[in-house]
Design a protein that fits this description.
mitochondrion; transport; alpha+beta; fatty acid metabolism; acyltransferase; single chain; about 750 residues; Chloramphenicol Acetyltransferase
Length: about 750
C-alpha cells in the first residue's frame, strides 16, 4: 500500500483520564495563512470588479463629478435642470418643531439628492464613454488601408481610440466595450465560398456546386439566417459556444493528437540539466503568471503595433480547468482557485510541494495506477463510463478530484529530449512526438495544459484545445520561459536560487483502488491511443536561410509569403491544389475565437502554375485581404458552420451545407505569434530562441503545419502527417520547397530561372 501524507490540524484520543487533545501548530498556522490569502483574493476581486466595471472611466472620477455638481449648486445654479428637486421630493423628510433642526435636515436632504444625481450622471457618462469606445472598436477599415496611406477617417479615429484607452486597463477592462461578432449577409458568404473553391473544382464540378449554393441561398438559407440573427441579438457571440461544443466537446474520438497541441522549449539551450530545478522554476513561473491573471495585472493583448485590444475571455479558464468526459458530450469544469498542482512520475500521482522528494521516492505504483492516464488518451465514451461507475465515490473520487482541480498537470518524464546527440534533427522530431502524445499514459490530456519536464532538464507542454486557442497558451509559455531563464535563474551548478523552506509539508501521494474492469479498459484505451500515436509522423525544422527581414524588403507580408510557399510545396509534392486552412483570430470581437482563412485562392494558384513575380504580388495581396476579412467577421466557415447547426436543430437537410462541412482540409496551417519579444533579449542572448509548437494532421491524407517567425532571420516549422498515408511524408516536403520559393520570389531574373524538382 502506498503511503498518504496528510497534514492534520489536530488529533484527540479518549482515555480514562479524559480527552487527550493534540494540536499541530504548523497545520493551524497553514490554515490561518490560507484564510488570509482567501480574503485577500476576495478583496482583490471586488476591487478589480469595480475598476473594470467603470472603465474607461475611473472610480475616482465620481468624486470630481460630485464636487462639480455641488460647486454649481453653491453658486446658486441648478445643473440638473430640476432633477435634483424631483429626487428631493421622493426622499423622506423628518419634520420637527425646532426650526434649526428642520433646516439641517432640509440641507442634508438637498446634499443627498445632489449626490444621487451626481451618481446617476456619472453612471450615464460611463455608459456613454463605453458606447463610444465600442463604436470606435467596431471600425475596422484601418486594417484594409495600405501602409503609409491612411484615410482621413482613420486619422481622426486613431487619437479618439487613444484618448478613451489612455487609462491603464486591467486584463478584462475592455470586455464590455468590445463589439459583438456580426452575422455576414448570406449572399456574401455564399459568393465568397464559391470564389474560394473555384481553383479546386473542374468546370462541371463548379457548376454543380454553384447550383447547390444558389438553391440554398434562395430557399433554406434565408430561413436559417433569421434564426442566426436572432441568436446574435441575444448571445454575446453567435459562434463561440456552438464552436466549443460541437467542434471540440462533442467529439467522441481521442483528443490526443486529434485536438491537443504542444509547445516546445528553447531550441539551442537548456537553462539547467537538473530536472527538479527546472521543474521548480517552471512551476513557480506558471504560478506567478496565474497570480497575474487572478489579479488581472496582465496587460490586455492588442493587435501588434496598435492600441486595439483583443478579447481576454480565454484567460479565465487557463488554470484549474479540466475537460471531463461524458457519453454524449464532454464538459469544461473550472474552479476558482487551488493551491497545488498534480504531478506524475514513474506511474505515480502526487500533489506537488517539493519535486525532489517526488523524484527520490522509490515506492512502486499501485496496481493499475501507472497507465491510468491512458483513459484520457483514448475514446471518450469508455472513459466517461469508467469515470461514472468507478470514480464517483471513495478514494478514486478524491484522487481524481485533486487532479481535476489542480492548477495544472506536471509530468516528470524519465526520458531525455531536445536537439542533441549525433542525430539532432531526428531527436528534434522525437521531441515533438513526445510532447504531442508521450507514452499515451504519462500525460493527463483532459487538463487545460500539462507541463512536461524531461530528465535532462528540457521542458514543454501539451494543451487541451476546447477552452482556448494557441495564442493564449503561447502567451503563457513565453512568459514562463522568459521568467524561468532570465528572472528566476539558476546557480552555477544548475540548482534553483534561494534557500529551502524546511517547514514545507511532504508531497501527498494520491491513493487509488483500480479494479480489474478499469484496468482492462485502461489497456483498451491505451491500444487505441498507441495506434494513433504510432501513425503520427512529426518533423520539426528551423529554417535559417532567411526570415521576415528579407521578406519585408520585397514588400510582402511574411505570413502571406509562407502561406503561398506552403501551397507551392504541396502542389509540387502532390501535383494539385487542395483546400487550405489557416487559422485567424476573431478576438477583435467579444468572446471571439478563430476563423478560417481559405489560403488557396485563384491568385495563389495562378502564381504557382506560372511562377511570375507579378502574380506572386497579387497572390500576397489577396491573402492579406482574406486574412483581414476573417479577422473582421467577414469570414466564410464559421457562418456556414452556424447555419448548419441551426439546420440540425430545425431537423432540415441542406445538401449544400452537408457537402461544405464534409470537405477535407488536407493542408491545415497555423502561425504561432510571438507576442512578448520584450521578454527575450535576443541581442545579448541570441541562443534563447523559441521553437514554437505544433499539432497533428486534420485529414488522414493531409498535413498539419505550424510555424513561428522568430526575429528577423529565422522561421521554425512543425509538420505532421500520418505514416498510414503513402502520399504524405513530413520530413522531406516543405523545407526544400520553401527554398525554391525564396529563389522564385527574390531572384531578379525570374524568366530565366528553371527549377527542376527531384
Amino acid at each position: 500500500m502506498a503511503e498518504a501524507h496528510q497534514a492534520v490540524a489536530f488529533q484527540f484520543t479518549i482515555t480514562p483520564e479524559g480527552i487527550d487533545l493534540q494540536l499541530s501548530y504548523q497545520a493551524l498556522n497553514q490554515i490561518y495563512l490560507s484564510g488570509v490569502r482567501s480574503w485577500k483574493k476576495r478583496v482583490s476581486r471586488v476591487r478589480n470588479s469595480l475598476i473594470k466595471g467603470v472603465y474607461p472611466a475611473s472610480p475616482s472620477s465620481w468624486l470630481f463629478v460630485a464636487i462639480g455638481i455641488l460647486a454649481t449648486m453653491y453658486m446658486q445654479s441648478d445643473p440638473s435642470m430640476g432633477l435634483i428637486t424631483k429626487i428631493q421630493q421622493h426622499l423622506p423628510l423628518r419634520y420637527t418643531t425646532a426650526m434649526s433642526v428642520a433646516k439641517f435636515f432640509k440641507w442634508g436632504q438637498t446634499m443627498v439628492s445632489a449626490l444621487v444625481f451626481s451618481t446617476l450622471l456619472w453612471l450615464s457618462l460611463i455608459l456613454a464613454l463605453r458606447f463610444c469606445l465600442k463604436l470606435l472598436l467596431s471600425y475596422h477599415q484601418w486594417m484594409f488601408e495600405k501602409h503609409g496611406r491612411m484615410s482621413n477617417t482613420t486619422k481622426v479615429w486613431v487619437p479618439l481610440v487613444r484618448l478613451l484607452s489612455s487609462r491603464k486597463p486591467l486584463l478584462y477592462s475592455y470586455q464590455s466595450s468590445l463589439p459583438h461578432l456580426p452575422v455576414p449577409a448570406i449572399q456574401d458568404t455564399v459568393s465568397r465560398y464559391l470564389e474560394s473553391v473555384r481553383p479546386l473544382l473542374t468546370d462541371p464540378e463548379f457548376k454543380r456546386m454553384s447550383d447547390l449554393a444558389n438553391e440554398f441561398e434562395s430557399n433554406l438559407g434565408n430561413r436559417l439566417q433569421r434564426y442566426l440573427k436572432l441568436k446574435a441579438l441575444w448571445a454575446t457571440n453567435y459562434v463561440s459556444d456552438w464552436w466549443e461544443e460541437y467542434v471540440y466537446l462533442r467529439s467522441r474520438g481521442p483528443i490526443m493528437v486529434n485536438s491537443n497541441y504542444y509547445g516546445m522549449d528553447f531550441l539551442y539551450v537548456t537553462p539547467t540539466s537538473v530536472q527538479a530545478a527546472r521543474a521548480g522554476n517552471t512551476i513557480t513561473a506558471l504560478l506567478l503568471y496565474r497570480r497575474k491573471v487572478n489579479r488581472e495585472e496582465l496587460k490586455p493583448s492588442r493587435v501588434p503595433g496598435t492600441v486595439i485590444p483583443l478579447c481576454a475571455a480565454q484567460c479565465e479558464r487557463m488554470f484549474n480547468t479540466t475537460r471531463t468526459p461524458g457519453v454524449e458530450t464532454d464538459v469544461l469544469q473550472h474552479w476558482l482557485d487551488s493551491e497545488f498542482v498534480a504531478v506524475y512520475h514513474r506511474g505515480r500521482y502526487f500533489i506537488e510541494d517539493q519535486i525532489q522528494r517526488i523524484l527520490d521516492d522509490a515506492s512502486p505504483p499501485l496496481p493499475g495506477e501507472e497507465k491510468l492516464g491512458a483513459l484520457t488518451a483514448g475514446d471518450r465514451i469508455p472513459w466517461a463510463q469508467m469515470r461514472k461507475q468507478y470514480f464517483s465515490s471513495g478514494v478514486n473520487k478524491r484522487s481524481l478530484d485533486i487532479i481535476e482541480r489542480a492548477a495544472f498537470f506536471v509530468t516528470l518524464d524519465d526520458e531525455e529530449q531536445g536537439m542533441r546527440g549525433d542525430d539532432p534533427e531526428g531527436n528534434l522530431d522525437r521531441y515533438a512526438k513526445s510532447l504531442l502524445h508521450g507514452k499515451c499514459y504519462d500525460r493527463w490530456f483532459d487538463k487545460s495544459f500539462s507541463v512536461v519536464i524531461y530528465k535532462n532538464g528540457k521542458s514543454g507542454l501539451n494543451a487541451e484545445h476546447s477552452w482556448a486557442d494557441a495564442p493564449t497558451v503561447a502567451h503563457l509559455w513565453e512568459y514562463t520561459l522568459a521568467t524561468d531563464a532570465f528572472q528566476l535563474g539558476y546557480t552555477e551548478d544548475g540548482h534553483c536560487k534561494g534557500d529551502v523552506e524546511p517547514s514545507l509539508p511532504q508531497p501527498q501521494r494520491l491513493v487509488w483502488n483500480i479494479p480489474a474492469e478499469v484496468q482492462a479498459q485502461v489497456s483498451s484505451s491505451l491500444a487505441v491511443a498507441q495506434a494513433l500515436a504510432d501513425d503520427v509522423d512529426c518533423h520539426v525544422f528551423p529554417f535559417r536561410e532567411f526570415g521576415k527581414g528579407r521578406i519585408k524588403k520585397c514588400r510582402v507580408s511574411p505570413d502571406a509569403f509562407i502561406q503561398i510557399s506552403l501551397q507551392l510545396a504541396y502542389y509540387r509534392d502532390r501535383g494539385g491544389f487542395c483546400l487550405t486552412y489557416e487559422a485567424s483570430m476573431t478576438r477583435l470581437f467579444r468572446e471571439g475565437r478563430t476563423e478560417t482563412v481559405r489560403s488557396c485562392s485563384n491568385e495563389s494558384c495562378a502564381f504557382i502554375t506560372e511562377e511570375c513575380r507579378r502574380l506572386f504580388q497579387l497572390a500576397s495581396e489577396r491573402h492579406q485581404n482574406l486574412y483581414r476579412m476573417a479577422m473582421t467577421g467577414a469570414g466564410i466557415d464559421r457562418h456556414l458552420f452556424c447555419l448548419y447547426v441551426v439546420s440540425k436543430y430545425l431537423g432540415v437537410e441542406s445538401p449544400f451545407l452537408k457537402e461544405v462541412l464534409s470537405e477535407p482540409w488536407r493542408l491545415s496551417t497555423s502561425q504561432t505569434p510571438v507576442q512578448q519579444m520584450n521578454l527575450f533579449d535576443l541581442k545579448n542572448h541570441p541562443d534563447f530562441i523559441s521553437l514554437g509548437g505544433g499539432f497533428g494532421p486534420v485529414a488522414d491524407d493531409g498535413y498539419g503545419v505550424s510555424y513561428i517567425i522568430v526575429g528577423e532571420d529565422m522561421v521554425n516549422f512543425h509538420v505532421s502527417s500520418k505514416y498510414s498515408c503513402s502520399q504524405t511524408v513530413s520530413n522531406t516536403v516543405f523545407d526544400f520547397y520553401l527554398v525554391i520559393l525564396a529563389i522564385l520570389s527574390l531572384n531578379t531574373n525570374l524568366s530565366a530561372l528553371n527549377v527542376t524538382v527531384g
